[in-house]
């Protein structure tokens, strides 16, 4: 169960943005979908403990990571989050294998045999074994993305937080990597929250999608109950100026929760 209710305000002195996002889902893959600047990345950062909300809570898999009322605020490094950043953020001076193993090592400890086996399994799963000793700058975009995914999974996270995981890839690679991610995520049984602008990502990977607009989750779409990809895609269009269509009545049934809260 992923249960998020975060309220916070960010300001750089001239601009101010109010975030008040709530959603709760048992789904293995939750998508946060919506226009640029809607508050999706801030939500993920608050889940990861990189931003401290003024109010609300973050609960994942029965554990409370943050609860403003109860004074709970588990440090980011203790939350068990596998975070995939938009631009991968690989360490350029480390090899592929060292990047994947990064979260499992400390400056004085070598990898345990079990951790080393896990790293090797991830390298194998993502087709990276032959590149294990290469540096990130010598890899293609798709290969770099696989390294970032493997690194996010290496520390056995409670949840994967994926910020636009496929945005930098060409359409063919996107499709391939969606399939790889879906397979590996399911095999390791780790729930994920994914930010995306791309309806295809939602349709390929998510069980439920929350449309985020203006700092709020304004609508939930249960994709497991979607009657068709077309209907699900229609349901995810932002509200303004959507022309009335014959499917509208059927679409309403897709919107299992009109207000995501
Ligand atoms: N430190 C900050 N100070 C002021 N405004 C901020 C700060 N951080 C983020 N914002 C603003 O908050 C809003 C939400 O940002 P956020 O990064 O969550 O959007 P997003 O939905 O992830 O967008 P995108 O899809 O483009 O990545 C944006 O308008 C952004 O400019």
Structure description:
Residues 2-239 form the ABC transporter domain. Keywords: ATP-binding, Cell membrane, Membrane, Nucleotide-binding. Residues 233-261 are annotated as: Disordered. This protein is of the alpha/beta class. It folds into 2 domains: 1-75 and 161-169 and 193-261, P-loop containing nucleotide triphosphate hydrolases (Rossmann fold, 3-Layer(aba) Sandwich); 81-156, no CATH class. It is 31% helix and 25% strand. The chain has helices at residues 40-48, 96-101, 113-125, 141-154, 171-188, 199-205, 229-235, 248-254, and strands spanning 2-11, 16-25, 29-33, 55-60, 63-67, 72-73, 81-84, 159-163, 192-196, 208-213, 216-222. The strands form 2 sheets. Strands 7-8-9-3-10-11 form a 6-stranded mixed sheet, with helices on both faces. Strands 2-1-4-5-6 form a 5-stranded antiparallel sheet, with helices on one face. A hairpin with a 2-residue loop joins strand 10 (208-213) and strand 11. Helix 3 packs antiparallel against helix 4 and helix 7 crosses helix 8. Residues 10-12, 15, 17, 36-42 line the site of adenosine-5'-triphosphate (ATP).
Summarize the structure.
With 261 residues, the chain is of the alpha/beta class. The protein is 31% helix and 25% strand.
Secondary structure layout:
Layout lengths: L1 E10 L4 E10 L3 E5 L6 H9 L6 E6 L2 E5 L4 E2 L7 E4 L11 H6 L11 H13 L15 H14 L4 E5 L7 H18 L3 E5 L2 H7 L2 E6 L2 E7 L6 H7 L12 H7 L7
Helix pairs in contact: 3-4, 7-8
This protein binds adenosine-5'-triphosphate (ATP).
């Amino acid at each position: 169960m992923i249960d998020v209710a975060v309220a916070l305000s960010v300001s750089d002195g001239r601009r101010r943005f109010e975030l008040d996002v709530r959603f709760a889902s048992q789904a293995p893959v939750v998508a946060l979908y919506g226009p640029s600047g809607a508050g999706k990345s801030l939500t993920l950062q608050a889940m990861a403990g990189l931003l401290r909300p003024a109010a609300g809570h973050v609960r994942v898999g029965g554990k409370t990571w943050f609860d403003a009322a109860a004074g709970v605020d588990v440090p980011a490094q203790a939350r068990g989050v596998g975070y995939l950043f938009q631009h991968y953020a690989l360490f350029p001076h480390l090899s592929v294998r060292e990047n994947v193993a990064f979260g499992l090592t400390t400056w004085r400890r070598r990898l345990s045999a079990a951790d080393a086996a896990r790293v090797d399994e991830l390298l194998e799963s993502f087709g990276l074994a032959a590149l294990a000793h290469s540096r990130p700058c010598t890899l293609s975009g798709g290969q770099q993305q696989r390294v970032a995914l493997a690194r996010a999974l290496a520390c056995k996270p409670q949840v994967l937080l994926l910020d636009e995981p496929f945005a930098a890839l060409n359409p063919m690679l996107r499709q391939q990597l969606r399939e790889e991610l879906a397979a590996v995520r399911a095999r390791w049984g780790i729930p994920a929250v994914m930010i995306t602008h791309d309806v295809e990502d939602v349709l390929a990977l998510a069980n439920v999608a929350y449309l985020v607009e203006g700092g709020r989750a304004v609508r939930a779409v249960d994709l497991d109950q979607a009657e068709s990809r077309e209907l699900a895609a229609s349901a995810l269009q932002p509200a303004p100026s959507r022309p009335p269509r014959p499917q509208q009545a059927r679409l309403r049934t897709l919107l299992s929760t009109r207000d995501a809260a």
